[in-house]
Specification:
The structure is a homodimer of 489-residue chains. Chain A has 489 residues and is α/β, with parallel strands linked by helices. The first copy, chain A, folds into two domains: 243 residues, Aldehyde Dehydrogenase, Chain A, domain 1, CATH 3.40.605; 179 residues, Aldehyde Dehydrogenase, Chain A, domain 2 (3-Layer(aba) Sandwich), CATH 3.40.309. Chain A is built from 15 helices and 19 strands. In chain A, β8, α9 and β9 form a beta-alpha-beta unit. The N and C termini of chain A lie far apart (56 Å). At the A-B interface, β1, β2, α8, α15 and β16 of A face β1, β2, α8, α15 and β16 of B.
Chain lengths: 489, 489
């Protein structure tokens, strides 16, 4: 196995030597072709994904659109070209005591990137998902370790990418797909000297193991592991008074979306003890009771969900508000529970993510205790405020806690359904991710796979297009401290 | 000791809670005041630094100017404000199947930053050096672990910073100075849960130890360790034919600058076997012989230099070209040695940095072997090409190696003397640094101390100034994919 994996990484590095020079224009065509090829797989892809995940076919119509959309978005980004953050400081001959040299910098691709896809998003966060799309956009060849929970889906998508590689006449090893169920494969690939970075979406234990392998290398490499969170929702009084039924309906949908198998699932909701909070709780239970129960992705996830529930629901002080006793293999019952903050603060087990259609309402005595609970939670991908303008006026100080706790702060909406935008941050303090300085969704995800290079007094003809005086690509550059698309000199 | 250090970090975090909200305008005044206070220390600072480092007073006139210059540069950067990289995607109500939410992101400070200064730059890379200046600019309180090799200098500068903190009426713990010789102090501070990031300049063994402590934490934090390199210089034929005397003079100065105690010291020079290379070697030896020998920083560095020389010079196949047999306590003799590439490639000991006024000329049989040697060297801060236009035309393929090996590529100049500019990259592949994605010199050094936050559908009045519709700070933002300073709506 080791020889085979060595060969994979050597091939990826060989591809890097040419792929890193491929222009934004060509990369755009390539990324668009991948999207076209994925769409050309037609219904067989949706049906295969559905069969392998127990999720409905219609869900994959949306996920495919998202996957192809972000491939095309990254294509536009690198074709436009300003993403390399070119900076130029021109020479100052008469500077004392010595002339100031000409200095120019830009981002360049780091090298072969290893991607571990998620089981819960077999299209958008997997083989041709955000990690792969952003790494290919950056100019890095990609090695995907296919997720064993959806091997056939991964194989189909890998075939689509390989077909795009061939149609675009790129180096054949710009993309490679590795299969296997052994964790050892991931370890060997992470530790391989030619691997330059790792994208991972999955569990805390898996992500941390990969991070530790990477940090323990002779040459450490960055690992961008997105490991989920409980996504605390803050329920404020005036909002509950005026919008409880609507909020309950929204959150019942969010808690059960994708059978709760979303890293942005609202797993903990905080409110201050009151009749409106009680009323909201009843409404949420009612809304949940009207939703059917579905099968989870696979046996391991289902078992973890059942064990997680057992741990929490039989805990002293935790009250089960709603528990659909659904039956059938792998079926997950939506569950709503409630606990008082005094109990919650004393029991770290209650702070953990339960991956599935579950949410825990934490009832606080007052605002001070609500803040204490919120701050006691570890790093989060998102945190949500359900609040009217009046609530926010009264509690503007909560903004500080929100920005400390999470990477994305949502106002009066559900945290599930991460928008792919220029401004997206899908990341957050550990253990939500291993590197809160970056996002794994949205256009800035490309920044994970580059490093800056500085050219000092380099002759113009040897400079990359992005840094030449004439600015042939017309990109936005910072020239002598001013942002401009104008040529130099 | 632990209790005391705990208190330091708790105080730093307390300062963070207010300092993170301090405006760019106020931070500019603060950074300028630090510079003023350092200048106000007058000659006593220069004399103290000289006494503690064995370096001449005049050297510190320059280093002080650099230190104060970069403090003021960071002040201008954060006052202008665009450095937070604000991105706004506005709401699209009629997007199908659901409205696109309003998403806005910007960089915010990560938390208290720990700085380990370098012994070789007691001003520019130490107490108020680039790490401290950039972290304070970002909005992060700083804890400096003063370098035991220049305690009095560090204390003077720390006093200047504290005086600026007080004059600017900032939280008293925005800056703290910790003294002590025990390595344990650095370990405890790095592992403290409230430490959010670490800047380090020093040896590979020290930097790697700090990196390992940080990566082994329950919540890993980034470490930006700059650990030096051999900064390979590529000597091409046409340049040597036309400019050997000038190049020899420049490099004799570069090799011995600061008694060779620069992380960008040109420790390895590569050329292809030829009479011009021999001629250049003789000229370089001659130039070195005209320069006096000076004292090194301290006993430990001097001892390492002597041991490093012993290891290399008595190695079979290494020829000593010039060795000034200077005497006197701590005095370092400039040394030039030569080795054939065949020997060099077989002996990893020869690849290591020898911190001091030493350079090794590696004679290659041909271009292919030169590339082999160049690629065999580990990650570098810089690599330099001494080349005419004709050389570069013949050897344009060398650019690929240069950008793989180093963070900064210098053309026809010496690598020492790192320019502080918008385009500076003082960083490079490991072991030059632990994180090649960032620079520790130049304006982008500020990016090491931030993380992005995304606000989704946030009411305008709760947004930070940088993200408000009206763009009150007038900063450059990416709005719906276009860079603009215009207000929204």
């Amino acid at each position: 196995m080791i020889n085979e994996l060595n060969k994979v990484m050597e091939q990826a590095y060989e591809a890097y030597l040419s792929y890193r020079h491929v222009s934004g224009k060509v990369k755009k065509v390539f990324l668009n072709t991948i999207a076209d090829e994925i769409e050309a797989l037609g219904d067989v892809l949706l049906e295969t994904a559905s069969k392998e995940t127990n999720l409905p076919v219609v869900r994959f119509t949306g996920e495919r659109a998202r996957t192809c959309g972000q491939l095309r978005d990254f294509g536009r980004l690198v074709d436009e070209g300003s993403w390399v953050e070119a900076v130029v400081d021109t020479r100052i001959e008469d500077r004392k005591p010595a002339p100031k040299p000409d200095m120019r910098k830009m981002a360049v691709p780091v090298g072969p990137v290893l991607v571990f896809g998620a089981s819960n998003f077999p299209l958008a966060y997997a083989t041709a998902g955000g990690d792969t799309a952003s790494a290919l956009a950056a100019g890095c060849p990609v090695v995907v370790k296919g997720h064993p929970a959806h091997p056939e889906t991964s194989r189909l998508v890998a075939g689509a990418i390989s077909s795009a590689v061939s149609k675009c006449k790129l180096h054949p090893f710009v993309f490679q797909h590795v299969e296997g169920t052994s964790f050892e494969i991931g370890k060997i690939l992470t530790q391989h000297p030619l691997t330059a970075g790792v994208g991972f979406t999955g569990s805390l234990s898996g992500g941390r193991a990969i991070y530790d392998y990477a940090a323990g290398r002779e040459v450490p490499i960055p690992v961008f592991a997105e490991m989920g969170s409980t996504n605390p929702v803050i329920l404020l009084k005036d909002a509950l008074m005026h919008r409880a039924p609507e909020v309950a309906r929204q959150f019942a949908g969010s808690i059960t979306m994708g059978v709760g198998q979303f890293c942005t699932n609202p797993g903990i909701m905080l409110g201050i003890k009151s009749s409106v909070l009680n009323h909201f709780t009843s409404l949420l239970a009612l809304e949940l009771s009207m939703l059917p129960a579905y099968k989870m992705l696979h046996k391991g996830i289902h078992q973890n969900y059942m064990e997680g529930l057992d741990k929490v629901l039989y805990d002293k002080g935790v009250e089960t508000i709603y528990h659909a006793h659904a039956t059938g293999s792998l079926v997950a019952s939506p569950v709503l529970a409630r606990v008082h903050a005094d109990t919650f603060l004393k029991n770290p087990d209650l702070h953990h993510e339960i991956f599935g259609p579950f949410s825990l309402i934490v009832v606080c005595n007052n605002k001070q205790q609500l803040i204490e609970v919120w701050e006691s939670l570890k790093g989060q991908l998102t945190t949500t405020l359900i609040a009217t303008a009046h609530d926010l006026e009264l509690h503007a100080d909560l903004m500080d806690i929100a920005t400390t706790v999470a990477g994305r702060i949502v106002f009066n909406a559900v945290p599930t359904g991460v928008e792919v935008s220029n401004a997206t941050v899908h990341g957050g303090p550990y253990p939500a991710t291993t590197d809160q300085r970056f996002t794994s969704v949205g256009m800035d995800a490309v920044k994970r796979w580059v490093r800056p290079i500085c050219y000092q007094d380099c002759p113009d003809e040897l400079l990359p297009e992005e840094l030449k005086n004439s600015n042939p690509l017309g990109i936005l550059r910072k020239v002598n401290g001013e942002f401009t698309r104008t040529a130099i000199g």
